Protein 1
Amino acid sequence: MAGKNLFNKVWDEHSVRELPNGQTQLFIGLHLIHEVTSPQAFEMLREMGLSVRFPSRTFATVDHIIPTDDQKRPFADPIAEEMMIHLENNCREAGIALFDTSSGRQGIVHVIGPELGLTQPGMTLACGDSHTSSHGAYGSIAFGIGTSQVRDVLATQTLAMGRLKVRKVEVTGKLGRGVYAKDVTLDIIRRTGAKGGVGFAYEYAGSVVENFSMEERLTLCNMSIEGGARVGYVNPDEITYNDLKGKAYAPSGAAFDRALSWWDNVKSDSDAEYDDIVEIPGLEIEPTVTWGINPGQAVGINRPIPRTSDLPDSERAGHEEAVAFMEVRTGEPISGTKIDVAFIGSCTNSRISDLREAARIAQTGHVAPHVRALVVPGSQAVQKQAELEGLPEIFQSAGFEWREPGCSMCLAMNTDKLKGREICASSSNRNFKGRQGSPTGRTLLMSPAMVAAAAIRGNVVDVREVI
Amino acid sequence: MSERKIRTASGRACVLRGNDIDTDRIIPARYLMCVTFEGLGEFAFEDDRKEAKGNHALDDERFNGAEILVVESNFGCGSSREHAPQALMRHGFTAFIGVSFGEIFSGNCTANGLICVRLSPEDVTKLMESVELDPTQEITVDVESKTVSYKAGTMKAEIPEGVRNQLLEGTWHATGVLMDASAQIETTARQLPYVNTFAEVSD
């Protein structure tokens, strides 16, 4: 009999029962909430006269709406303040731990979960945010849910779900110089398209992934949803276990050893079966930048943006719309495109290793005069570590703004927004129309190193020319 | 705690062309600055409608009063915001017919008793062309028989079996069904070593 992959092992361990409708009732080991997608769920519970079933299995933080310039209460935006108060009241009433700015542990939900050791191998994890797939970096099955499902998890710690198929995505060999985890995920999405992963969980594997640090794995798993896959994970290994050691919510002492043997058992068996396998040679991956209005519309830095006529009929209308909106020239490379804003941050790329790499490049020059550049650490812990290493000084003397932690300009539910038709070189995860706060604003997704390089040159540049 | 059983949706349709229409476009993030879903209906596709200067499908008078939205592939991809189906529902849509849907979006639809069914790309094209020629025709999405009917005939539709049963049984509001398994939830929780912080097990 063929072995089992991690997805199916974890799924089966967490299956409460098969529902009469054929779905699985799945136990959710860890539930993370934030201020945007939870207030309606708490209200629904109240209307139903229900309480939170396992309050100790839910943790909250504030990230989407929090200003990154001045976080003093009350927040300048009264609606943001109201949302914060709702979160505080809901957590207090239910007995849910809230990591607010006074805790020293606040940050983007997908940064703090791993940072605190809340995210562990073999867990199921849900959060009302599509980038929850990030946590799969630790070998958990983690996925985004809507607000009605947040209600279901609060009420029962379970969800009604259909099992996903599993695709193994093997990135083999090694990566070239100046090619980062962000480029790997952008390249995968470029190859499979924005919907190629619908119905699948992705198991990322191969020597490139095995050699990735935990932070690189988080970046990789983070963007699974941009390729359509609700779940992405990496099998846990020594890198995972070493990372977890000593973290606030990770087991310690003898419990750690017991955990380790359980974690090691959830790994995919060597003869595990998959519904699909995709192999990508690492050396084929280039520094990659999006040119269009979905993350699949990406291209290697020096390669021409595809011409509409090169595409199948079904993709032409979308391609034309993207070309018109972005005002890019097909047949020509994206490098050289002038930028107005540079944003380093978001749940994809706001961790300490991202900031170190960006700072290394920031040191080589000064932000171009026409560019507004900001660096937003993913959490208070990242912020503190960066301060210890003197990164804010490096950024500031190079002309970057150094901000307080939050989601910031990734989705602009705060004061960090593009204006008008501005073009932003961004280390975030979505280049959708209007995503960064201006309905007509334009986003070019790339690695944080590439963003730093673009900020200094004033236009999109191959990071390999800089490092 | 069971809800209304949903077997069919019938009414006029609106044709919205385009692949990969994400939930940021369905409802821009600034409308997520709220603690309730009320009032979202009027902001559905706000920025796309402005950009189209009156030429957006939702502003097309021919489609006034449509209850069914016909879309192309990967509709509702991106952000998990339930504000997206909420805005469309509050705008008046009860069912979506498309080539494919973003997975979180379609799950959110089910949780609100909205139907998402898939047709082949060829059938979506046929349906779109027919509705554009005669927007007054009645379209019926039948969950039970897994079909979509329009003036030129009936087409085979796809819907995941579990979701179909949720709609037909009236269990799409899942909380009640999930709560029925209270004892089993406890059992599963007890069997997961991390729930018990990997404490030593004594048999």
Protein 2
Amino acid sequence: MTIRTRLTLWYGCVLFCAVVLIAILSLSEVQERRERFHRHDRGMRELIEIMLGVGIPGAALSVAGGWWLTRKSLAPLAALTNAAERLNENTLAARLPRSHNRDELDRLTEVFNDMTARLHQSFERIREFTVHASHELKTPLTILCGEAEMALRDESLSTAERERCGAQLDEMRRLARIVDALALLARADAGLVELKREPVALDELVHESFADAQILAHAQGVRVELREVESAAVSGNAHRLRQLLLNLTDNAVKYNTPGGLVTMALRNKSNQAEFVMANTGHGIAPEWLPKVFDRFFRGDPAHNSDVEGCGLGLSIAKWIVTAHDGTIQVESIPEKLTTVTVKLPVFLK
Amino acid sequence: MRVLLVEDEKKTASFIRKALQAEGFAVDVCRNGNEVADLIATTPFDCVVLDIMLPGRDGLSVLRQLRESHHPTPVLLLSARGNVHERVEGLNAGADDYLPKPFELDELVARVRALTRRGAENRATVLRVSDLSLDTITRQARRGGTTIELTTREYRLLEFLMRSAGRMCGRMMILEKVWDYDFDPGTNLVDVYVRRLRDKIDAAFERKLLHTVRGSGYVLKDQP
């Protein structure tokens, strides 16, 4: 039972009792006075008449009035509930309108607004921190890589020293790629990345990425098959869409097993371009599936400890798809097939 | 060849200068964006390597000023901001090339070399390196009298390498020109393609033309 109904009922009951009490008291008063003049026996009937004629309509009216009153006074509470329901990391900047009448609910709204403001602030701080951190890391990384490359140019270096230096340089470059990917995601989170969009023939990009996939897969002993490719134009950014396809291809090959298979298909289904990429391999256990788009998630640790990568590829893929108003979904039957489905709205002239 | 390096970070400036000097460039270093215009007005440079974040005027505004006064010196922009649009913004402002930090030193040197030689770019329709030829109209490659079958991507890779014959081509440069990627995908795509191309053009021949440069790029040339 909602507070509103409860309050209305209580209000109605109290009013009804009050009316009955008043009726009884006033009737006994009237009767007493009449009895002083002449005897009368219509007392009971009059009481019932008053009860029916005044009490019931009065009570009904007061119940309706109470319902309206409580509804009005509790409206801020309903607004607050709706606002809390809508709240997520992207809507923290929104504030609830206040009544400023200094009642309990206005106070609650104020506290709620303060709370979201504080949350918003700390979210912003984390975002800013990531943007700045990834930027500040680039200068020392540039210096480290540069110094290592200069050291490698030294002809007097022994083979062992050269190998050590080369290995360090490889790791620094890996670090540089992680910082780069992180910087992109941080800027995207902070809404600082704007995508210039134009009509892009997705089927052409799929054909291109099929050619690359074959090359990447061949080295791993994996086969790639291109299923049907229907023509589909989307409004998008060609660079980012290429990056999306390459990230997915890279995963499909990396998390495969030798002798495995990767299939690609593009369908144009009633104003929606649907790109499906499936690969064999260990797959993803159901408990890990909700985490695949998380940053630095690198698959089931039981299988993938030796797979190279930084665990940001799918996070970037998800961002690219979302920025194109599309959806991305991963399904997996462990040890059998993992399927990634990307749906993008088709460009309409 | 004389290069102006505009970079305020001392250590970065120092190894870029060393690397360019090792390749035979004369290098002047400048640390403040306000001084660039005067330097360029008094000394003829063949190329400017310009960092975007500078004390004084920032790199982009220096570049705009330079282009507004119709200065033709090629400019290579360096940036640590990593903004996705910065590349486009930089090229629109009049930069000839853009390199995000952290970059590979060889990549930077290769780009500076490409910029200083830009006028002399090979525009022929049939490209030749030793006994390897590539007809850019029929898209046919031949070596020593045999025709070599190439896929579209392999053709574009070979054409790029042949047009820059004798010059080192960095991985990022190849990804940009052949794949049209403006990001480092972190895969060995380029290496795998080069290996395939090498199988096709070099494997059957005594004399190798496609060489690896210290793990950071490739060069197509006649000498070993």
